[in-house]
């Protein structure tokens, strides 16, 4: 079950926060681009599935895509966690933002997920900082994002 969206009401508090956090970190590009040399084509708010250079979208399409992507990544994240509904909203959104950025497989096998599943939410928040590299190289933008995700996470404890 999604904590981001209620079927009849729309976005929940966590859903509104998730859209704000992820869209703020990802930024928006209506035309496909490669964010870092060696990365995959990306469009809209960090969407990568099936994207080819030259693809373009409207802002409305990008917003819809972000909503769909967040629900998909939330489903994958929840599948990796033993008790996702016990996580407060701010840490939940921080973990979702991380999962959205690193992908469900990396999240599932991460120290972050292991610490969440062992009940160590503070340790999980701190472990977010481990994910500031692309192909082994620390990137200032990722470092800043991880610091902000950690801050949000710890605020909610």
* Overall 3D form: globular
Order of helices and strands: EEHEEHHHHHEEH
Multimeric organization: single chain
CATH class: Mainly Alpha
How are the elements arranged and paired?
Layout: E1 5-6, E2 10-11, H1 13-26, E3 29-33, E4 42-44, H2 59-80, H3 89-102, H4 104-108, H5 111-117, H6 121-127, E5 133-134, E6 137-138, H7 140-155
Antiparallel strand pairs: 1-2, 3-4, 5-6
Can you characterise this structure?
The protein is mainly α and 157 residues long. The protein has a single domain, classed as Lysozyme (Orthogonal Bundle), CATH 1.10.530.40. It is built from 7 helices and 6 strands, in the order E-E-H-E-E-H-H-H-H-H-E-E-H. It has helices at residues 13-26, 59-80, 89-102, 104-108, 111-117, 121-127, 140-155; strands at 5-6, 10-11, 29-33, 42-44, 133-134, 137-138. The strands form 3 sheets. A two-stranded antiparallel sheet has the order 1-2. It has a two-stranded antiparallel ribbon with strand order 3-4. Strand 1 and strand 2 form a beta hairpin. Helix 5 packs antiparallel against helix 6 (121-127) and helix 6 (121-127) runs antiparallel to helix 7. 29% of the residues are buried. The mean pLDDT is 95.
Summary of the model, kept short:
By secondary structure, the chain is mainly α. The chain has helices at residues 13-26, 59-80, 89-102, 104-108, 111-117, 121-127, 140-155; strands at residues 5-6, 10-11, 29-33, 42-44, 133-134, 137-138.
From the structure above, extract its key features.
two-stranded antiparallel sheet, 6 strands, 7 helices, Lysozyme, 157 residues, mainly alpha
